Amino acid sequence: MTNRRNFLKAAGIGLAAATMPQLASGASSSTSGSKNKFDFQLGVASYSLRNFSREEALGMTVRCGVDRICFKSMHLSLDSGKAEIEKAVADCKEKGVTLYGGGVIYMNSKAEVDQAFEYAKTAGMELIVGVPQHELLEYVEEKVKSYDIKLAIHNHGPGDDLYPSAESAYNLIKNMDTRMGLCIDIGHTKRIDRDPEQDVKDFFDRVHDIHIKDVTAAKAEGTTCIVGRGVINIPSFLETIVKMGYKGTIALEYEADGNDPLPGMMESFGYTKGVLAML
Domain Xylose isomerase-like TIM barrel spans what residues (predicted)? Predict the structure, then answer.
C-alpha cells in the first residue's frame, strides 16, 4: 500500500477539492465532492454541528463539499409536525443536500418507535440510525417491514449497556429482516479495542451506514480527533470497504471542537478524499 506520506499529499489535494468551490462561489458552492468512483457516498452526521442552527449546519455541510446529511434531533425535532418536517426537507433541497437519515434516535417505548418511523417517512429518509431497547426489536422489525425504512443500530463502545459493539447488535438481529442492520461507528469500535475493518467484514451483510471518525486511543478514554491523526488506520479501513463493495453512506461524526468544528471537519474530509483518490 502507498505509504502515509503519499496519502497525506493526496489528502491535501482532497482538502483543496473540498474547499475550492466555496472559495470560488461562496454559499452556493458545489457539493459534488461527495461523489466518487466508488458505490458509497460521503455525508455528515449532524451531531457534528450540534451547536449550530439547521441553516448553519446545512451551510457548513456544503462548505465541506458533501451533499448528504443525517439529522440529529436538534436540527429537526422528533416531535415536529408535518409542516415543520416538510420545511426542513425544503431547506435541505435548497442547499442541494439530501436528508438521507435521522439519528441517533433512541427508542425506549413502542410510542417512540412509532414516532421515529412516522418522522422518517414524512421526511423521506432512507434509514433511521437508532438505539432501540432489546425488547422492542421485534416491534421495530414490524415497522421496518411496513414502512420499508431501514434501521441501522449504532454502537457506542465502552459504557454502552445496549450495543457496545456492532457484534452485540448483530447477534440480536441476524435472523431478522435484512433491513434490520447496523451503523458501525468506527471510533467507538476502536475505543472498545475492536478492529473496525474486521467488524465490517464480519457483519457486512447488515452494514447499512457507517460513522467515520478517528480517536486518540484504543481504550475508553480515547476521544475524537481529526481523521488521519488518531490511532485508526483510515487508509486500510477505506480500502476494505471499497473491496467489500459497500453501497451506503460514510458519514463524518466529528465530536470534537463543538463550537468550531468546521476546520477539523474540512481536514477530515480532505484526508478521506485524498486516501480515496489513491485507491
Answer: 135-268
